[in-house]
Please model this.
Amino acid sequence: MGARKWLGRVQFWIMAVLASVLLSGCGSEYMVLNPKGPVAETQYNLIIISVILVSIVILPVLAITFYIVWRYRDKPGNKAPYQPEWAHNTTLEVIWWGIPVVIIAILGYFTVRDTYALVEPPNKEVKPITVQVTSLDWKWMFTYPEQNIATVNYVHIPVGVPVQFELTAEAPMNSFWVPQLAGQIYTMPGMAMGLWLQADEPGEYFGTGANFTGKGFAHMQFKVIAEPQEEFDKWVQQVKNTAPGMTRQDYENLVKPGLSDRLTYSSFPPGLFEEIVKKYGHAHGNHPGGMNHYKNNLKNNDDQHDEGHQGGGQQDAGQHGSHGGNDAQASHQHDMSGTNH
Model:
């Protein structure tokens, strides 16, 4: 009777946990598990692979733990064998060390593969656009160097078009994160980091700062508005026709600690993003290749994209593949340096 009651309690808690996970999944709290672009989809698949591989170890260990507790519990008439001299079993040692080693090797392979793949544009057949991101106290500023417009706390992007985000900070180090479109990447003073992102579906996507930066940190949120190319072009033209231009004084006011509503500017001071990066570059050892690497990366992507249309898709794909390997290596150098900082 006692055993049946104990099993009933275990079943109850298992069902309670499953119900809480499955039912709460209908909300917006699990945006990471609802990707809306190729970058987030790749990272989502890596999460699923990791969960499956880790479960191969965790589930048997939990099952064996419950079995041992149940089988060898102290009770009258317990017939479990008592072997105080038992100390070693080669077969068991090979099993419980060999399986984790194999799992880690498999997980390492998938992690390295996807990490290098995400350094390249998610769609090499479409010309990307560039958006420069500057994290401030406590707001996000987005500048479009090709369109010469700027926004604060929201950003428009065209659907199906790769977006190269260039990121820096003129405030404490932060972390740029759009859960449904890409993973996190740090924004750091004196450094220009790079992140590819693409939205496959129109909509508004939640973005936030994921690194504590003071009392206004909780309000460092923004919206990524993905829309068809035609609507994006109309929005750009509307901004140019109706919004005021950003002056140096406007930017100095944005830099001051404080919260801000959404703002839109029809222009911004030339070279503003580059000035922000160089302003603090000396404080961080002038991170090698930080700004130049991503500028050259974008230029090479554009040149290769144009050459591909003139000289054939196969040549373009080969050029992108060659560039991707060098880009991946440089990106890893950036990440390691950023961690040290």
The helical segments are 2-24, 38-71, 90-117, 229-242, 248-255, 272-279, 290-311, 313-340. Residues 283-294, 307-341 have pLDDT under 50 and may be disordered. The chain has eight helices and eleven strands. Residues 90 and 165 are 53 Å apart (CA to CA).
